[in-house]
Amino acid sequence: MGYMNILFVTDQLIVGGAEAYFYRLENCIDRESFNMYTAAGGGCYTHRLREGERFTLLPQNPLARTNVLRRIIRDQKIDIVHANSLRMALLSDLIRRAYGLDFKIVYTKHNVTYLEKLSENQYVRFLNGRVDKTIAVCEADRRELLGRGVLDERIETVFNGVDTEKFRFDSKNMRRGKGFSIGILGRLTREKNHGFFIDIMEELFKRRPTDDISVSIAGDGQLREDIESRIKKKKLQGSIEMLGMIDSPPEFLREMDMIMLVSTREKFPMTILEGMAVGSVVLSIDRGGIGDCVTDGETGYLIEEHDIGKFCNAIENIMDGDNSSVIHRARRTVEERFDIASMVEGTQAIYEGCAGKGANRNG
């Protein structure tokens, strides 16, 4: 048995980067040093947890949810609550104060939260005064937090990590099937900006024969009908394929010559790292922490603004060029800086720094 008890908690385990971070960390934690318990409000990723017997399904009722978490913390002698959302960090602090329990709080920041939009001062005060360590998943996030007034000693950067064995490299060199394959992978939400992606493809098809290009949209979400309607309105239903939810992201990414990201806002998207890992050329808008992993012209290609013409020009240059050195450098970058082992080791070091070995202070 491990010597430090961790409760890793999140809102839901639905499809998404923050949720994938959750189950991957749980899968790879050092079980000789840490007992990790997990809790969430359900979702399709619950079956991906390695130790399902340590998972607790949280009720939707706020009071019932609070009581369930309090019992886990008390009964399992939890040393650290690792909150995968600000909402869970706030709830954990409420439990700690209301019931006089002694544990530390680690919070991983994935998204822009309601509290920081509502009151930046309250947000910063909470991170500085109530959270023992905030994990930034990219340097851009760390710089932003510092700029807002979060104390340097309260922040640690731990980059997201990819399972490089699962996301195997394929030096496809622009290969098989129906011409050049372009893909976009992610939840069908407004911030992922699929409408703009479709506009880019419309312009590209004016420049290039459609038989030369295969376009796939992978993922599901609330905007599926809107996206399908936009494709139909532009008469592109024979040229852009909607795949819905996919069972194997590594297989999908390996089939793509190029992976695109055109989001209106991003933090540190896993799809970019995963595309780099498998050997797909990455073409992305330059937002958030994407520049931490993609060096323009070296490990992928970045566009500074949402300009259809610039994206189309970049796609044509990629189609006509030799990108073998780019995809090999991208794979090496993932192996050297963004492997999941580095993410897990960095997180475990934070646990040890917060609590100290053999803490078990709630007994």
How would you describe what is shown here?
- The chain is α/β, with parallel strands linked by helices and 363 residues long.
- The protein folds into two domains: 4-161 and 339-355, Glycogen Phosphorylase B (Rossmann fold); 180-337, Rossmann fold, CATH 3.40.50.
- The chain is built from 14 helices and 13 strands.
- The protein has helices at 17-28, 62-75, 86-99, 114-118, 120-129, 139-148, 194-207, 224-233, 249-255, 270-278, 290-293, 308-320, 324-337, 340-355, and strands spanning 4-9, 34-40, 55-57, 80-83, 104-109, 133-136, 155-157, 180-185, 213-218, 240-244, 258-261, 281-285, 301-303.
- The protein has a seven-stranded parallel sheet, with helices on both faces.
- Helix 3 (86-99) links the parallel strand 4 and strand 5.
- Helix 7 (194-207) crosses helix 12 (308-320).
- Residues 357-363 have low confidence and may be disordered.
